[in-house]
Amino acid sequence: MFENADAILLARIQFAFTISFHFIFPAFSIGLASYLAVLEGMWLKTKQPVYLDLFKYWVKVFAVTFAMGVVSGITMSYQFGTNWSVFSDRTGPILGPLMAYEVLTAFFLEAGFLGVMLFGMKRVGPKLHFAATLMVAMGTCVSAFWILSVNSWMQTPVGFAINDVGQYVPAASWWDIVFNPSFPYRLVHTVIAAYLTTAFAVGAVGAWHLLKDKANLHARKMFSMAMWMAAIVAPIQIVVGDLHGLNTLEHQPQKVMAMEGHYDSYPDGAPLILFGIPNSEEKRVDYAVEIPKVSSLILKHDLNAPLDGLDTIPDEEEPPVGIVFWSFRIMIGLGFAMLGVGVLSLFARWRGKLYDWPLLHRLALIMGPSGFIAVLAGWATTEVGRQPYTVYGVMLTADSASPISAPAVGASLMAFVIVYFAVFGIGVWYILQLVAKRPHAHESGPARAPIRSAGITPGPAEGKGGDGRMDTRPQNPEVEPAK
Question: Which family does the record assign (predicted)?
Fold first, then answer.
């Protein structure tokens, strides 16, 4: 079936498929962990039960999302050794330690406090539990820090030398590698994207329940918080995205050329191509709808500034323009749609109709998946725009793959497709079942404790003393004292 296929292309498709599944879970869990920390902090500050109810409502979703993110991430590590062993061998002295730092910092931080966050509400004091929630939220951001440092170095490699066996090794300072030229922009842009992804997912759930019952206090609270995030953060993301684009123009100009659809150079001002069909054979954008000189204004802040096109780049170094062109427009379009919903929510709030305007609620519901689609479109823009390199300007994708046959890669790709859709499809279905339930007072959190391993003596049964009799001591429904 795959005998005549390109093994490298199949390996790229497999990596794209698996990382697309993986990326949506951390993008949600990063923002959701911070949202849970805000909810618990507001409960401790105001003592309003609605915040604790919402914490218990969303922490169950977080637990499932976090688990699927971890499981799908494990696969990524193995692919480096199976399909991309040459890449792993040559870049290992630089990328290996950075990824190890993620394990030693983020994973240990999350693993150390996740159990307390999920199961310790009635076992530790409220302040300690809040501290655990903060540590989990911090761990998700630390994980993003190291992974984006790795990816950014692949986009803008600096601070390295090549040893006698062809491996990339640190030349002087690790700080040059970690804080490479594109890293600060990519980190801020991605973390904000995760927050917006969570905001619109939470807003969609709140809108869904408001359409059923506009008097639901819990739906009102989560919808209001989500719309505040959309209104405040969406404009910031547009500004950060612009700065990121300018940084990309400086260090990866052909990626920006592909994003803009500029096959030709423009010596006296480049147009902004809104829509069209890239035609790489004829080196033009068919049926282009464009605004004269606006691209130069955006990228150079000058209507008449010259911009180079792909005609200055050798054909073998030209990225796939069609994918980059459209993925970039999907991301930008959804970003401005998020801004529109945020502005509309401010208008509704000003008119006192935030909870009584079905049109806004339906728009928020439609925009629920927008964050997930936007982060995937942004990832495609970044990664496909880097081609034909795995390490930009240094190591070609064609020189990075393992010496394995196309049928072997194709067989594993089919297995991944079947297993991923089955396992993660069920996981997503379960999350949808959780958020479809109406949030209410005295919301129950996760199970009181994880299942104990065989051979460990269980503690007293719930509701009973150590001798098996019913415990008649009064219980605080919110927090029990630490034992």
Answer: Belongs to the cytochrome ubiquinol oxidase subunit 1 family.
Q: Which of 339, 404, 295, 375 is nearest to 5 (CA)?
A: 404
Alpha carbons within 13 A on the beta-carbon side of 274: 5
Which tokens is 174 given? 């690790």
Q: Is 110 exposed, middle or buried (0-12, 13-18, 19+ CB in 10 A)?
A: buried
Domains in the chain: how many in total?
Answer: 1
Q: Which domain holds residue 348?
A: 188-400
**pTM, entire model:** 0.86
User: Which positions of the chain have pLDDT values less than 50?
Assistant: 453-455, 457, 460-483
**Per-residue pLDDT at 66:** 86
**Cα dihedral 276, 278, 279, 280 in deg (nearest 10):** 160
Contact 384, 390 (CB under 8 A): no
pLDDT at 331: 93
Identify the helix (H) or strand (E) that includes residue 276: strand 272-279
Fill in the amino acid letter for 267: P
**What confidence score (pLDDT) does residue 463 get?**
46
Specify if 103 maps to a domain: no
Specify if 483 maps to a domain: no
- Return the pLDDT at 448: 55
9 lies in a domain? no
Q: Indicate whether 284 belongs to any domain.
A: yes
Q: 459-468: long-range contacts (C-beta < 8 A, 24 or more apart)?
A: none
Residue whose structure tokens are 């991944």: 416
Structure tokens at 185: 């922009």
